[in-house]
Design goal:
disordered N terminus, MarR/SlyA-like, mainly alpha, 7 helices, WH-like_DNA-bd_sf, 3-stranded antiparallel beta sheet, HTH_MarR-typ, Winged helix-turn-helix transcriptional regulator
Length: 157
C-alpha cells in the first residue's frame, strides 16, 4: 500500500524542509539546535571580511586576550586536540595574524603570539561579533536576557 502520507517527498527541498512545525510539538533540543544553527551561520557571515572561520576567531581571541603562549596552552584554552591547534595556528599564520617565536624560557618550545595585524583584526572581530550579538539577542527583554544567560551558564558548567 502506497499512501501519500507515508511516502517520502520526491522534491529534495521538501525532504530537507520537513513537515510544517507545530510549536507545541517542537522539542527543547530541536529549538536549541535551530538557534545554534542560526548563530553558526550568522557568525560565519560576520567573519567573512577577514577570511577566518569561527575556530580561527576563537584562537585569535584567546591570543589577543592572554598574549603569547605555547600551543599546548592554547589547545587547553580552546578545548581541542594539540594537532587541531597546530592546524588552526597554521591557518592564522598564513594570513599573517599570528607568528611563532622561540620560548625564551625553553629553547625547545615555541610560543605563538598575535601580530600587530592579528591584534587589529581581533579587535575588529570583537566589535563585529558584539554588534552581531546585539542584533540577535537585542529583541529580548532585560529579564529574558538575564534568564537566558543564567540558563546557558548552568548548562555550560
Amino acid at each position: 500500500m502506497t499512501g501519500a502520507t507515508s511516502d517520502p517527498p520526491t522534491d529534495p527541498a521538501a525532504r530537507c524542509a520537513g513537515p510544517p512545525t507545530d510549536p507545541a510539538e517542537e522539542s527543547l533540543a530541536e529549538l536549541f539546535w535551530a538557534v545554534a544553527r542560526r548563530l553558526r551561520h550568522q557568525s560565519r557571515r560576520t567573519l567573512e571580511p577577514w577570511d577566518v572561520n569561527p575556530g580561527h576567531a576563537r584562537a585569535l581571541a584567546v591570543l589577543t586576550r592572554h598574549g603569547a603562549m605555547r600551543l599546548s596552552a592554547l589547545a587547553e584554552h580552546l578545548h581541542i586536540a594539540p594537532r587541531s591547534t597546530t592546524e588552526v595556528v597554521d591557518g592564522l599564520e598564513e594570513r599573517g595574524l599570528v607568528a611563532r617565536h622561540p620560548d625564551p624560557a625553553d629553547r625547545r618550545a615555541t610560543l605563538v603570539a598575535p601580530t600587530d595585524e592579528g591584534t587589529r583584526v581581533g579587535a575588529a572581530i570583537r566589535t563585529a561579533r558584539s554588534a552581531e550579538a546585539e542584533r540577535f539577542f537585542g529583541h529580548l527583554s532585560p529579564t529574558d536576557h538575564a534568564d537566558l544567560t543564567r540558563i546557558l551558564r548552568t548548562l555550560r558548567d
